[in-house]
Amino acid sequence: GGAAAAQERRRADIMRTWNNIGGLENVKEALLDLVFPMLVPPQKDNVGYLDGSKAPYYGGLLSNPPGVLLYGPPGCGKTTLVRALAATANARVLVITPSTLLRKYVGETELQVRALFSLARKIAPCIVFVDELDGLFRDRGLGGGGEHEVNRDLKTEFMQLWDGLQQRLDDASTSSGGAGAPQVLVVGATNRPFDVDPGFLRRMPRSFFVGLPDWHGRHSILQSMLSSVPLAPDFNLEAIVDATEGYTPSDMQEVLRTAALFPLREARKQAAYSYGTDKARNSGVAQKEHMEGHSCPPAVPTNLGTPPLRPLTTDDVLRARIRVAPTHLGQAYCSALAEYARKASGG
Q1: How many CA atoms lie within 13 A of 141 on its CB side?
Q2: 316-338: per-residue pLDDT in tens?
Q3: CB neighbours of 208 closer than 8 A, spacing ≥ 6?
Q4: What distances in angstroms separate CA 5 from CA 84, 89, 273, one per listed residue?
Q5: 138 pairs with which residues across the strands?
Q6: H/E element holding 209?
Q7: How far apart (Å, rounded) are the C-alpha atoms in residues 67 and 38?
Q8: How far apart are CA 239 and CA 242, in angstroms?
Q9: 190-222 as b/e, with b when 16 or more CB fall inside 10 Å?
Q10: More confident residue, 323 or 24
């Protein structure tokens, strides 16, 4: 009973996490395909093998790729997708940033990288999430001049251990259909895929473009963000969707936060007015009682808690949209990203 209820709650939480990511249906489907082998690993008996033999599970075609790349403009949901992926697979996530691996003294950076992959194998199923991939593994030909020795050693050590991890997976898949293979998936996220070292891109054969949401995507995102917000009866969600074209999910969230300030300020002013009125009234009483020789306690606000807020209106959000500009994406950046996406999709 208790275990079944906990499992049902977890399933509901996972569904809610994916539903909170508006749009990107093709990307979500592809990521769920990737995580499925981590959910149902092949067993050591003959279940799932072809013809009852010891051949790899489904011919080895469903084994995870060496790595997955998520790329696109900032604030479009790449990190949120990784969180949802980890929750679905019930996998731990190791988030890698430059400060995680880079060290000042010679040899310490390589030790950090070895410790990372050792830990990933021990706590599998695990997702190694390299955020801002272009900052940590930048193309060696960019920026002019020679590459720093620490960065070069970091890349070499990381790629060797990454290849070793994949070799273990391939060996286990060949010998036992995947049983005993380390369930570790490396996922990289970047805003600038064209700046990433080609050696890393080759190890990420699956790449997914996470771009600005379209009309239906924005509708789904806003509907999710406003699901627990009290709205006016005539709230026009479609008008908000139309007005936020070109906005990232992060931008839309900032618009709604700014819009919520309007009801808050009205309630705050009303509370201050009520306090001022009570204070003036109490001051008059205090003066009268002072003349009669009695004491009176000082005036205090009539409402010490959170003031009640009116429902959010369409006008609140439209006013906030004027104040919150969308993330600026330069023309050169958009052109380079579109060209990379075209090449990555085989166009």
Answers
A1: 5
A2: 999 999 999 999 989 999 999 99
A3: 27, 30, 31, 68, 69, 70, 71
A4: 21, 18, 49
A5: 196
A6: strand 206-209
A7: 14
A8: 5
A9: bbbbbbbbeebbebbebbbbbbbbeeebbbbbb
A10: 323
- Would you state the structure tokens that stand for residue 276, as one six-digit string? 């001022």
Spatial CA neighbour of 22 closest among 249, 323, 253: 249
CA neighbor of 18 nearest in space, from 65, 88, 96, 91: 88
Collapsed DSSP state (helix, strand, coil) of residue 67: strand
CA atoms in the 13 A half-sphere facing the CB of 67: 22
- Tokens 């009520």 belong to which residue? 274
- Residue partners of 66: CB distance under 8 A and separation at least 6: 162, 163, 166, 186, 203, 204, 205
Q: Which helix (H) or strand (E) holds 96?
A: strand 92-96
DSSP string, 103-150: -SSTTHHHHHHHHHHHHHHHT-SEEEEESSHHHHSB-TTSSSSPPPHH
Phi first, then psi, for residue 191 (nearest 5°) are -90, -15
Q: Would you state the structure tokens that stand for residue 345, as one six-digit string?
A: 């999709």
- Fill in the DSSP letter of residue 49: S
Centroid of chain to Cα 323: 25
Fold of the domain spanning 218-337: Helicase, Ruva Protein; domain 3 (1.10.8)
Domain spans in the chain, listed from the N-terminal domain onward: 2-211, 218-337
Instruction: Please state, in angstroms and rounded to a whole number, the distance separating the CA atoms of residues 313 and 330.
Output: 33
- Indicate left, alpha or beta for 42 from its phi (over 0: left) and psi (-120 to 50: alpha): beta
CA distance to 49, 68, 126, 183, per residue, from 60 (Å)? 10, 18, 20, 14
- Global pTM value: 0.78
Question: What local confidence, expressed as pLDDT, does residue 14 receive?
Answer: 75
Q: Render pLDDT for 130-189 as a digit per residue (tens, 0 to 9).
A: 988 888 888 876 655 555 666 777 888 888 898 888 776 665 555 554 545 568 889 999
d(CA 270, CA 308): 10
What amino acid occupies position 8? E
Which residue type is seen at 139?
Answer: D
Q: Return the SS3 of 94.
A: strand
Instruction: State whether CATH 3.30.70.930 applies to domain 2-211.
Output: no
